[in-house]
Amino acid sequence: AKAQGRDRSAVFDQVMRETALHSLELEADLRRAIIHDEFVPHYQPIVDMTDGRVIGHEALLRWQHERRGLLAPDAFIALGEDSGLIEQVDWLMYAQVVRRLAQQPKGYLSVNVSPRHFSSADFAERLLDLCRTHGADPAQLRLEITEVALLDDAPRTLRSLRTLREHGVLAQLDDFGTGFSALSYLHRFPLSVLKIDRSFVSGLDSDQPESFALVRAILALANTLGIETIAEGVETEHQRRALLGLGCRRGQGYLFGRPAPQLVN
Ligand code: C2E
Ligand code: CA
Ligand code: CA
Ligand code: CA
Q1: Which residues of the chain register pLDDT less than 70?
Q2: How many whole angstroms from 195 Cα to the centroid of ligand 4?
Q3: Is 138's C-beta closer than 6 angstroms to any atom of ligand 1?
Q4: DSSP-derived secondary structure letter, 197
Q5: pTM score of the predicted model
């Protein structure tokens, strides 16, 4: 038993070493990817669920890795956040998205904002400058932020969001219902859209009364505050109908389109 224990800890050490090596290697790769801008935004349509009309797109980060192929954010976002590299990656994404917006100015494009950005005082100015440089209309750009972003350094975040809003950049609260849900920030921050997290939407499939009640409560709250809603992760016709029945008109999900390099008209 003792020998077996030793073996097991040797295996464990080996795994730890490989994991550490892997993340060191990935971090080096990520630094190189930033220099060569190996990021390719994919766009997923956001539709009016009554008629399928596309009203905008969410830009989703993809990394064209030279050996590993196309990587989704799950594979590297935690590393990007820990190493502080995510901000540089995001700026490369925003530059591409803003350029796309200038070329193909139909509907809006939303970008994801890492919470770290709000600790820099010039986030809003820098984003507006980027729009000016490329001739994009800031009123067609939207930000997706999570509840976590609203927790730290609130005054600075508030200032950034206000400045952006004055220039027409709307803020959408991402993954609503999964975070701290203190709710007080809903009226403290200038938020225009609330994205209902996929976990609530998937519950509508099984006709669970609790899921219906939760979505209904979220919609009532948004309504009261005059905030628009978008349902995330809509995968089935059943979910689409249920959401429309509850009064949620905008949706995003595989049912309407997967993230792809091109915009959908
Ligand atoms: P998110 O902002 O909640 O984005 C929605 C995620 O759900 C995307 O995953 C999208 O591909 C996926 N999705 C869309 N429709 C469906 C559906 O019907 N079913 C299912 N199962 N999934 C669906 P993705 O692209 O892997 O992105 C994961 C997360 O990475 C995003 O979650 C966001 O938090 C983060 N992220 C994406 N792009 C960026 C970026 O440019 N910067 C930063 N900082 N984070 C990003
Ligand atoms: Ca998002
Ligand atoms: Ca989301
Ligand atoms: Ca998410």
Answers
A1: 1-6, 180-182
A2: 10
A3: no
A4: P
A5: 0.93
